[in-house]
Amino acid sequence: MTMTVRDFRATDAEAVAAAWRSAFPFLVTTPRTVVWKSERAPVEQHYRLLVAEADGRVVGSSEMGVFHDSEEPGLAFANTTVVAGARGRGAGSALVTAAEEYLSGLGTAKIFAWTLDEPSSVTFAERRGYRRGRCSRVQRLDLTTAALPPLSADGLPGGLPGGLPAGVELRTAADFADDPRPLYEADVECTADEPGDVDVAAPPYAEWLTLNWEHPALDHELTSVAVVNGTVAAYSVAHTDGRGRYWSGMTGTRRAFRGRGLAKLTKNDSLHRARSAGCREAFTGNDGDNGPMLAVNKWFGYEPAATEWRYVRELSA
C-alpha cells in the first residue's frame, strides 16, 4: 500500500466528511462544512487540513491549528481521524507525525487532541506521549419517540399553566437576521462560563459572525431564543446536516436570568422545531464537569452515546 500525506483539496471534501462521520458519527459533518472550515478559519489560527491517501483513496485526515485566542501562548490542536476499514495500517501515525511537525514549527508548547474512549484510540494516543485530560459526554435523543414536554411550557420551572413564563417571548435566530449582535453578546457571556482546558478571549464581533453566525450547519429557524422584557436571556443553537441529524451547538442562559428554567424552555422549543422539520436524531455534548447541562439533557431523556477524552502532549523545546 502506497501512503501519502498531503494538503486538503476541495475535491477531497466528500471523502474527508465520510472519514469524520466514520470516527464521530454523532457530529454534524458535511462536505460543505469541511470546505468552509478550511476556507474561513482566522489567519492567526494557522489552520491546516491534511489528508492521508492510500493507493489513490483518501482514508483519513488531520485538522490542526493554534488557539490564537488563548490567553496562554503556545497552545495548539490536532484532531486526527481514519476511516474504520483503514485503521492499523499507518495512516493515523503518518498524519499525527505530520501534524506535530507542522505545529512544532509554529512554536507550539502543547497539543490538544480529542480521542474517543475506545481501547484502540486511547492506546494510540498514550503510546505517542499524550496524557488524558478532560472528558466530554456525548448524548443522544431519538426524536421519533421522545416524549418532549408540551410547548405550552406546562411543568417547566418558572412556567405558567397554558403559556410562557411572564415577560418571556420565544423567538428564533432568524428573527435576528438584521442585527445578530444581541445573540453575540449573550453567547460571549455564556461561553465564558463553560468549563474547559483552554481559556480563550471573547472573539471580536466580526470573527463571531464568520465562525458562528455564518456557519453552514447553523439552522437559524431551529435555533431558539428566549427574550425577557426585550433582552436576549437564553438560547439553544441548532446545527443540522440535512440527513436527519441535529446537534445542539450550545445552550446557554445569561447570568442574570439563570434559575428560571429558560435553558429547558429554549431547548424544548428547538427540539420541537427540529422534529417538525424532519430531524430524527438529536445529539449534544457536555463537558464532564458541566453538571447543570448534563442534568438538563437527562431530564429531556437523552441517553449516553459516547465519551471523548481531551488528550494533551507537551512538545520538547
Number of strands: 12
What series of H and E elements makes up the topology?
A: EHHEEEHEHEEHHEEEHEHE
Could you give the distance between the termini? 35 Å
Helix content: 25-40%
Q: Kindly report the spatial arrangement of strands forming the biggest sheet.
A: 1-2-3-4-5-12-6-11-10-9-8-7
Give the count of helical stretches.
Answer: 8
Mean pLDDT: 92
Uncertain stretches: 153-162
**What is the approximate shape?**
globular
Largest sheet: 12 strands, mixed
Gyration radius, rounded: 20 Å
Beta-strand content = 25-35%
Content-based structural category: alpha+beta
Characterise this structure.
- It is a single chain.
- With about 325 residues, this protein is of the alpha+beta class.
- Helices cover about 30% and strands about 30% of the residues.
- It has a twelve-stranded mixed β-sheet with strand order 1-2-3-4-5-12-6-11-10-9-8-7, with helices on both faces.
- The longest helix is centred in the first third of the chain and has 15 residues, at about 90-105.
- The relative contact order is 0.17.
- Mean pLDDT is about 90; it is low at about 155-160.
